Amino acid sequence: MVGKHILLTLIVGGAIGALLWQHPPVTWTALPITGLSLMIAGFILWTVARFQLGASFAVKAEARQLVTRGLYSKIRNPIYVFGSMVMAGGILVFGKPVWLLIFLLVIPLQIWRTGKESAVLEAAFGEEYRKYRAGTWF
Questions:
Q1: Are the beta carbons of 86 and 109 closer than 8 angstroms?
Q2: Rounded to two decimals, what is the model's pTM?
Q3: Which terminus of the chain is more exposed, N or C, with fewer CB under 10 A?
Q4: What is the pLDDT of residue 131?
Q5: Confidence label for 28 from pLDDT (cuts 50, 70 and 90)
Q6: Contacts of 117 (CB under 8 A, 6+ apart)
């Protein structure tokens, strides 16, 4: 299972690296530097969240285990939060305002997905999940 985590991390990291290796090169002013900072921080935190989720990671909402440690002790959906940081950072790095439209479409999709996941977890873990949800953000 760890091999799958490492492979996924390498794929996402490689995709970010490939995006940064573009022609013409980025002019490094304050906005792209801020974007790159968001991308790097978001990617590192996304990777940590992905490892902390472990075998509970699934594309479709499933209730394998209630993960409440690490980043999940404060944020119920850190993969979505930090994935969004990477996307927002990319928009700033490349100065592509039209990508904001994609980003604005992704946010409601993520909120919808978190709602589905929340319902599955609440059905499986009941009061334990409701207590966890009350003490965390998004």
A1: no
A2: 0.80
A3: N
A4: 97
A5: confident
A6: 61, 77
Overall average pLDDT of the 128-135 stretch = 97
Q: What percent of the chain has pLDDT over 90?
A: 58
> Mean of the pLDDT values across residues 26-50?
91
CA distance 81 to 44: 12
pLDDT digits (tens, 9 = 90+) for 82-94: 999 999 998 998 8
Q: What is the DSSP string of 62-131?
A: --S----SGGGGTBS-HHHHHHHHHHHHHHHHHT-TTHHHHHHHHHHHHHHHHHHHHHHHHHHHTHHHHH
DSSP state of 135: T
The region, left, alpha or beta by phi > 0 then psi within -120 to 50, assigned to residue 95 is: left
Q: Which domain holds residue 66?
A: 2-134
Q: What is the DSSP letter of 1?
A: -
Name the DSSP letter for residue 57.
Answer: -
Overall number of domains in the chain: 1
